[in-house]
Each structure stands twice: as structure tokens, then as C-alpha cells.
Design brief:
Layout (H helix, E strand, L loop, with lengths): L4 E5 L8 H20 L2 E6 L2 H9 L4 E3 L4 H12 L2 H8 L4 H8 L4 E4 L14 E4 L4 H4 L11 H15 L2 E4 L2 H11 L6 E3 L6 H4 L5 H10 L6 E5 L8 H13 L6 E4 L6 H10 L6 E3 L8 H6 L1 E5 L10 H8 L3 E4 L3 H4 L4 E3 L4 H10 L5 H40 L3
Parallel strand pairs: 1-2, 1-4, 2-3, 4-5, 5-6, 6-7, 8-9, 8-11, 9-10, 11-12, 12-13
Helix pairs in contact: 11-16, 14-17
Length: about 400
């Protein structure tokens, strides 16, 4: 039986932070699986920068941009009736024809890619990180200008047509089965893993000091790495710091991440709340600097509304930094975080103060390492299940060869 040839699509830009780092983790595991099982992977990305980054890991990626014809196919697919024309004429998109020319057997999307709609012949595997357009439709980034409807089309087709669906939490499997009638046995749960840039960066006092000096930071700040979307809930964090200042407690905060649609409001809120001397916004940072920024923090504070899981808590636990996290995501945090109500600035302020209790940092650090170990075992189990799915798929596709 010839090797299974898997296309691995890395379609998330580096600037998306965790949205880029987790697919990179998936790719590195798939490379090991292919080497050990005698199968093959071919890596594609539409971003030249991603191709360059992959070279750091010894991976030769292929640039695969998407042309006007592909976008026309996507538009027509969203319209629905085009399916009948495509079936009648056996039309394939330029995207799919290119993959077929590369002898691809199955396409693995490492994110919830709209480009699975371009596949008419090739089977695909999809990754679904969350269902937050259903969980919190009040946020404009998942609701307005047809975004909600677009996601519904993607999620419904992806979760029912994919030969396997990769998720990061068991509760997400329940949601997909309930909302879209996904077949449960097609779902594979592989928890998030810390970014390889953080997990592989050994503490180096001089190097860490250089990173902090670059951004004019002193150790002991609260840290929130997140893009500036409304759902990231920066405003509640700022309000909590203002409440603490009223109590005579001054906490410094470092924010990093690319701007999306929420930065202007944050820039206005900071002086209005009297926090200008406490906040450092350092923008998008290089992945290699993240470890130093986590180690320099007194705590990760993450008031996001979107879950059920997120990558930063895992990265903070990796370096022993305490985590302050919404109680809504307790399933991920367990007892390894101080929990708070993400709709209540006072609750968050109290959580920050509780970090100062005697022994709190040591307890949280130890609990974080235990939590990481639990997730590592669940990840191994998920990878074994994924490998079994791939081998079954290889056998079945061999039956269809001419």
C-alpha cells in the first residue's frame, strides 16, 4: 500500500498569535507521525513569512496563494445553488486541482478554513477551535456584516462532511453534535499545547533582561497577550486596575498583540481611568520573546470571553507564572488559576489582590505544572486516536484507487 499523502494547510497568519502557534504544534506532530509511519505530509501556506518560519524547524513549505477563481468558487459556494452546477459539470476549483496535481490524498486544515468549501473530490480533516459565534453572538467580530451566517455555513458543512474533526475540548464535541448533528465518532480531542517557542526556551537571565529592556519593562507586571478585539475584554481589566488604584494598590500591566478593532477604545479608556502611568502597550512581539515576557510577569491575567480553552494559560504554566482566568473556563484551568467573573471588574480586582496572599504564587505554580502534565497525557491520547483515524483513512482510500 502506498504512503498516505496529507496536505497540511497553515492558513493562520503569525500575527494571530495562538491561532498560528497551535497549528504549528499540530504540524510538528504530524511530521513525526509521517516519519514513523512511512506516510508523507506536504505543507502549504499562503504567507511567505510562514514559509520562512517553517525553515527554522526544518520544514520545507509550499506557497499556495488563492486566486480570483478560487474566491469566485467560494462566493458561489456560499450562494448554495452553485452546488448543483458543480455536481453536474464535475467542476473542481483551481485550489483543488493544484492539490490533485501534487498527488494529495487528504487535506488537513489546521484551522476552521473556508477553503474546505473548495474541495469537491478530496476528503478533508478540519480543526474547530471554538463555537464562540454561538456562545457570545453579541460581539461584532462574530456577528456583523454576515460573519455569523458565514460561520454557520462553515461549521455546519465542516463538522458533517469532514472525515475527522479536531477539537481541543470535550465540551466542544458536545456543542458540535448538538448544534450541527456531527457524528461523535469522527471527533478527536487534542488539547492545546504550549507554543514551542515558550516550551523550548530555557531561562536565560541575560537574554530575558535584554527582552524586557527592549520594551522598557521591569519585572513584576501583569501580562495579557491578546489581539485587540472587543471579546478580549481589555476594558474590564482596565476597570479592575482603576478600582485597585482607588484602594491604594498600583499594578502595572503589559499588553501585547496585533490591533484588530478594539485598540482605539482602549487608548481612550487608559487616560480616562487615570492609568497612563501603569499601562505599557508593546504591540505585536516576536514569538521568541514570549518566554521572557511570561517569566517577567507576576501573573497572566486573561479576561477573554471566548473559550472553552486558550493557549496563554498553558504558556504561563510552562514557565511557572500564576494565572488569573475567567471562572467560565474552569474546565481548562482546574485549580491552577485564580478564577473571577469576566463581567465584573470588582471580581477581577479581588482576584488580583488574592495573588498577594502568602503561598499563593507557589501553590498556583505547582498546580500549573500538574495541569500541564494532565494535558500532555490527554494530548498523547488524542494523537494516538488521530493516527488511528489516518491509518483507517489510508486503508479506505486505497480501496478507491483505480
Amino acid at each position: 500500500m502506498r504512503p498516505l499523502r496529507v496536505a497540511v494547510m497553515l492558513e493562520q497568519a503569525l500575527e494571530l498569535g495562538g491561532g498560528f502557534q497551535q497549528p504549528l504544534n499540530d504540524l510538528l506532530w504530524l511530521r513525526e507521525w509521517a516519519a514513523q509511519s512511512g506516510n508523507e505530509i506536504v505543507v502549504y501556506s499562503p504567507y511567505p513569512k510562514t514559509i520562512e518560519i517553517l525553515k527554522e524547524f526544518g520544514v520545507e513549505g509550499r506557497l499556495r496563494t488563492f486566486g480570483v477563481s478560487d474566491y469566485l468558487f467560494l462566493f458561489l459556494k456560499y450562494c448554495g445553488p452553485f452546488d448543483l452546477v458543480q455536481i453536474a459539470l464535475e467542476l473542481k476549483s483551481p485550489f483543488e486541482r493544484a492539490l490533485i496535481r501534487d498527488d494529495i490524498d487528504v487535506v488537513h486544515f489546521t484551522s476552521t478554513s473556508k477553503r474546505h468549501l473548495l474541495l469537491h473530490q478530496l476528503p478533508f480533516i478540519i480543526t474547530i477551535f471554538d463555537g464562540c459565534h454561538r456562545d457570545a453572538p453579541e460581539f461584532p467580530e462574530v456577528r456583523t456584516f454576515g460573519e455569523f451566517e458565514r460561520r454557520e455555513i462553515l461549521f455546519r458543512l465542516a463538522s458533517t462532511k469532514a472525515v475527522a474533526v479536531i477539537v481541543n475540548a470535550s465540551e466542544l464535541i458536545d456543542d458540535l453534535c448538538r448544534r450541527y448533528a456531527m457524528e461523535r465518532d469522527r471527533a478527536i480531542c487534542i488539547p492545546f499545547s504550549p507554543s514551542t517557542y515558550v516550551s523550548s526556551s530555557a531561562p536565560d537571565a541575560a537574554a530575558d533582561a535584554a527582552v524586557l529592556a527592549k520594551y522598557r519593562l521591569e519585572p513584576g507586571y501583569l501580562f495579557y497577550p491578546a489581539q485587540f478585539w472587543p471579546h478580549k475584554n481589555h476594558i474590564t481589566l482596565l476597570a479592575a486596575l482603576a478600582l485597585l488604584r482607588e484602594r491604594g494598590i498600583t499594578e502595572r500591566l503589559v499588553l501585547c498583540g496585533s490591533n484588530r478593532s478594539g485598540r482605539d477604545r482602549i487608548d481612550l479608556a487608559i487616560p480616562n481611568l487615570g492609568l497612563s502611568d501603569q499601562i505599557s502597550i508593546i504591540g505585536f512581539v516576536e514569538s521568541a520573546e514570549l518566554g521572557a515576557l511570561y517569566r517577567g510577569a507576576s501573573a497572566l491575567v486573561m479576561p477573554t470571553y471566548f473559550g472553552p480553552t486558550n493557549l496563554p494559560p498553558l504558556e504561563a504554566w510552562t514557565v511557572g507564572t500564576p494565572v488569573i482566568y475567567p471562572e467560565a473556563f474552569k474546565a481548562q484551568a482546574g485549580d491552577a488559576a485564580i478564577l473571577f467573573d469576566y463581567d465584573d471588574p470588582r471580581s477581577l480586582a479581588d482576584a488580583i489582590v488574592s495573588l498577594r496572599a502568602e503561598g499563593a504564587r507557589e501553590r498556583l505554580s505547582a498546580a500549573g505544572h500538574l495541569r500541564l502534565a494532565q494535558f500532555a497525557e490527554e494530548t498523547k491520547a488524542g494523537h494516538r486516536e488521530f493516527a488511528r483515524h489516518l491509518e483507517r483513512l489510508k486503508h479506505r482510500l486505497a480501496l478507491t484507487e483505480r
